[in-house]
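DATA SHEET
Item: assembly model
Revision: 1
Owner: S.N.
Input lines:
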Amino acid sequence: MTDLTPMPALGRAAVSSLRAGALTISVNEAVALAGLALRRGAAPPAPMGLVLPGPGRWSAGQAVAAFWTGPGQWMIEAEGRAGEDVARALKTRHPDCSVTEQTDGWVAFEIVSVAGGAPIVRLMEKLINVDAAGFGPGCATRTGLEHMSVFVIRRTEDRLAIIGMRTLAGSLWHAIETAAMRQQEEPA
Amino acid sequence: MTRLSGGLIDRSEHLNFTFDGKSYTGHRGDTLASALLANDVRLMGRSFKYHRPRGVVAAGSEEPNALVELRAGARQEPNTRATVAELYDGLVANSQNRVGSLERDFLAVNDLLSPFFAAGFYYKTFMWPKAFWEKLYEPMIRRAAGLGSLSMLPDPDSYDKGFLHCDLLVIGAGAAGLAAALTAARAGAKVILADEDFRLGGRLMAESHTLDDAAAMDWVASLEAEFASLPNLRVMRRTTVFGAFDHGIFGAVERVSDHLATPGTAVRQTLWRITAKRTVLAAGATERHIPFANNDRPGIMLAGAMRAYANRWAVSPAETVAIFTSGDDGHRTALDLAAKGVTIAGVIDTRADAKALGKYPLFAGAVVSDAKGRLGLERIAVTREGQTSWLDVGALGVAGGWNPNVHLASHHRGRPLWDDAAQAFLPEPGAVPGLTAAGAAAGQGTTAAALASGAAVAQAALAELGITASLPALPRAEDAPQRQAAFWHVPGKGRAWVDFQNDVTVKDINLAHLENMRPVEHLKRWTTLGMATDQGKTANVTALAVMAELTGKTIAQTGTTIFRPPYTGVALSTLGHGDTGTHFRPRRLTPTHEWAKAQGAVFVEVGQWMRAQYFPRKGEKTWRETVDREVLATRAGVGLCDVTTLGKVDVQGADAGEFLNRVYANAMASLKVGMVRYGLMLREDGFAYDDGTCARLAEDHYIVTTTTAQAGPVYRHMEFCRQCLWPELDVQLISTTDAWAQISVAGPNARKLLERVVDGFDLSNEAFPFMACSELTVCGGLRARLFRISFSGELAYEIAVPARYGNALMARMIEVGADLGATPYGTEALGVLRIEQGHAAGNELNGQTTAQMLGMGKMVSTKKDAIGAVMSRREGLLAETRVLVGLQPVDPTQPVTAGSHLFAQGAAQKTETDQGWITSACYSPHVGSMIGLGFLTGGAARMGEVITAANPLQNQQIALRVVPTHFVDPEGGRLRD
């Protein structure tokens, strides 16, 4: 176990959680990510028992989830295992796949609504050019957010995840925070 | 003038406002224009060129005259149309484009000089004396140009943006738009109804017509109640759809807080990008005026606007008014105003067979030929059969027919089509895919026709989407046929204004015709017709008709101008949606950012990255002092630099080696596992694209590094190669730039320092030689990657750990390496170290240089093919003799300036004798002078020669000696030590 202290995506002094009206936004520092791509002729595996989703989709199992990132490619999410070498473990189990550690390449913002899906939809309208009406639970896509490339996952009706480049964490947080706070400030 | 009866204003609420410092009162529901009229203010502005007194002409966003500076201080906004400025308590407005008071504008002298300011005058004058242009003419014109003024203060408001998607976008909430939205929303389609007004109803608010024998606004109110219950319908008031862009995307500005004194914490405006599967353009129509002598007197306005002010805002511009019309519509204004108690001095109808529709004097077959009243209309001249009489009136409504608002239908370059029956241009069907016009925008003149067409167009649009919509029961509405004669201007001697905002007269069009500026585009540029903030909404068609008359052609033959976005002006702050200052664009922070900040680093923007430029210490007075220290510390001990910004691409698969062989000019498949190779990529055209390293971690696993600047493009290029060029190869790519923090550890003590952090890894030269790489663990089990590569010419490594540990690793290495002289260095020192080592970087890899020029010609393998290899052997490129050389001043005190051009000593300095240029330069503490790199013709054979570097910008002529590119350790012994 290393004695080095990891740095949170937003820096040590920054808040990593925010309540804005019905929305709570927090940084998920614990999720491990790994890119998994099929090699020529390989059949899609079932990492940790998970059936990998099709294009535009996200699927979840027991403490593991995955979203489609391209033909024959997925991002595997292993909740609570950011400190582990999940990529190596996956590669060992699935040697006919290319596996790449991605945990620290990204920052995951988890957005939860206590008032159903409407606040999530309104937030999406301000952040990304994706038709929220057609982006229900289980949908995932890669899109632009304030000129930054992000993955967006509708985990449930009232939960949205935005996964962006870790080096852009501060700018992403600013964008999400601003949009969420403005939901409360719309004039009559 | 007291208010008339009726109207859609809330008389119980009194709103105070000022115009030019004078206090007035209006009501909720007023616009600034209606409130001013209600306070007997007819003079609202000055014209652009001649500074003629002007009053309000229209009642909507087409207004050309009543432009004001709205609000004060930093929120002051010039060129705001008083006709769409929603009145609020405390509103402050000032007239603009004047010197002195609005009544006594000194620049009105321009009007007296008007013979000198005819169309195209600025193309013909100011030619001589030549020296006067910059010193006199241009400053003078710049001072005179423009309308309102800017506050020059930072915008205090915030702006927002957003994205909406719908099945049907309905633009305009008049009769047609409301019927379309109702039809579609009831069918369950996802509908957006947008209107620039703050109330729904469009022209229904301006008319006295009934719907089903009740007030039209009763029907609108019932619809609003139903709309509120339909979750699939989004009603967007105060929202102008200003542009039709590609792929069904429309730009819209929602004025979220403009109706409030200040936005408070809310945003002022929101820029929406609306993606619509289908669109109904129900933007209505704009009335035409009829030019006659002095038709710009304050009080002369469009008859439809006069009717709108009476019916919607319960105000008349004067107690006695007249109407000048060429169709039935003008008579409606007379009837509506008469019904409200306004005296109608007469209706002057150009048609000899015109009939009065009510009790008012009719002048059939007559025209208005002149007007008097400089600051406000007093009299009009009525001419019939050569006899002129004068009528005393305070206002004149002019009705010359209606132009459908076809603008958005033209945004894809669709040309509106002239329709003789409608006497108007209609939208070209299909000009914007998925967009269909309805109602007045499609030339439907009556309310009944507008309602029916809105519903029918919506139904048809939804049918294309597979959505079945039933036509709703629409209210019974007026459906009287409207007769309209073609009458475009009153001939005469005086100046008759066509374009009020740009002061373009019939005479100007005549002059353009005489000077052969006859095509529509030439007419526009010669006269400035339609160029101002109103984009000729009330002028263009009339001008075309006048030109058609002059040329003897039909209007259809004369053509039309088309329209570009935006339909009405959009503030730059809105387009930028408020991203200013630190948040103007995204910022990427390196993994060691927090540590560097704590050390007092000075940061520099490198693309999106914020990189530590240098780390000043107490007592260091200049940045050079700091950088010199960092460079010397690195060469003497060990320096550490965050190089995470270099692009990293993980390449895996059975064919990874073959793939890289094709992407890189040099061979990569032969690279041994555990080794790194410098690599050069070429573009298809044979020029150098990017350089970096390629490390082989396993038979089927490589890591490619790119330059910081090209990280994105190279990754995209590699994906293109993988997906499109060679899909048969078994290769998988993924960027890992962000995933790993990478720190350069350079200097003679680099190995000793690393030995203190690695977990028992053998770093000896034998076990881990120059250009080796390996996976390992550091600091008690943290997974890491180590590369023995050097950018500085020193014994050097790059160590990578998962990004979140980068900050701690940097702190740890500085801490444990204190006795070894561990020193952080920034991008400035990095630059010095690489120039001293003769390493090419972005300055040298600028897209115009070849491998041969970089001294890497032999790296382009002839044993295999690769992108750009064949083209790099083109005759022209092989004949190129400019190569990268080192440059050192003969006099060490002299500067070396990047960008300087190189010449043989004593040679004339001109393009033909130019022998190259300096790409990079710095002060080298190792050499003790400035040094440089540059491309020099025949450079390889000119070592030792003294040449001249010319920098005409700073009047520099510096004697430089040509030297090898390696200023430090040319044999490379330190690298391999």
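QC remark: DSSP finds three helices and eleven strands in chain A.
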